[in-house]
Task: structure prediction
Amino acid sequence: MKELNKIIYNWSFALFDLAEEIKQLKEMTNEVLVIHKTLKKNKKYLNYIDSFDIDLEDKYEKIDQAFGSYNKYIINFIKLAIKAHVAKYLTIIFNKFIELSNNKLNVKYGIIYSINPLEKKEIKIFEKQLSKNLNAEVHLVNELREELIAGIKIKVDDYIIENSIEDQLQKLEKYINKH
Result:
């Protein structure tokens, strides 16, 4: 396990350092986010590029076909991971890289819970206000929660805003129990 952590740490920091050095951290992070999601959804593809039974040049060709439009440094990074037989860890390596980048770029992700789906423009309003409050670039994903009854709940790291019927009922119950 210690060896795995070292691999993930070294590879993710190598990509992070490269992105910073060439002053493309934000752009590369955005591309790695897309590739990361793609690889997470396609475990068979990850197994394919990690296979010892498949010729290295065939794997490189598949990488070029799948991700050829992305940053050449990211493509070469993936090819190096294949050659070094660490391709099976790419999703974990990319996850750590994204974490490092978000810390450096001051980007935070959170969830906005609601009973009904929110429109993108509504979410953008909350993101803009939270970005000001938290002094960071905030991105929210909408998740539905029936137990809210009405209202919303927002969670970004340890920062929570709640304005829901459920929250008000809980506060009322605590108040009643005290008196």
Summary: Residues 19 and 107 are 16 Å apart (CA to CA). Strands lie at 107-114, 137-144, 151-156, 159-164.
